[in-house]
Amino acid sequence: MGAPEMYINRGSTINLTCIVEHSPEPPANIMWMHNNLEINYDSPRGGVSVITEKGDVTVSYLLIQRAKPADSGRYSCSPSNAIAQEITVHVLNGELPAAMQHGGQLKLEYPITVFFFSLVALFLGT
Q: Are 18 and 12 in contact (CB under 8 A)?
């Protein structure tokens, strides 16, 4: 069974959320990857940011504005003290496949740590 998938329209905002709970302590860091490469938030592409809120429940948001086909691929959230989770994102050029998702949520449970990898596609009316 492969990773979950998300379909969004070109020009939309990709919002990937990683929630870490039931962990003895907050992760020291959460690394976001795209196609096995660490995401560079200062790249010339622009419009890519991450917000992480640490606490009893740690939440990290990866936001990618103005999605383009090059943003398609496998994304992973990798907390320093837990197992990484993945999602495959498809950025579409106006196609409307049957699997088109307008947001959703995937719950992944582990004995020590529970991850929620929720996905939201915000359409900017393009």
A: no
Q: Judge whether 30 and 114 are in contact, CB under 8 Å.
A: no
How many beta carbons lie within 10 A of that of residue 105, not counting itself? 11
The answer to whether 21 touches 123, Cβ cutoff 8 Å, is no
Q: Is residue 103 within 8 Å of 4, Cβ to Cβ? A: no
Cα separation, 77 vs 87, in Å, equals 9
Contact 7, 96 (CB under 8 A): no
Site of tokens 């959230």: 77
How far is the C-alpha of 7 from the C-alpha of 103, rounded, in Å? Answer: 9
DSSP state of 4: -
Q: How many angstroms separate the CA atoms of 78 and 74, rounded?
A: 13
Q: What is the pLDDT of residues 66-94, one digit of tens each?
A: 999 999 999 999 999 989 999 999 999 87
The tens digit of pLDDT for each residue in 24-78 reads 899 999 999 999 999 998 889 999 999 999 999 999 999 999 999 999 999 999 9
> Token pair 């449970």 is at which residue?
109
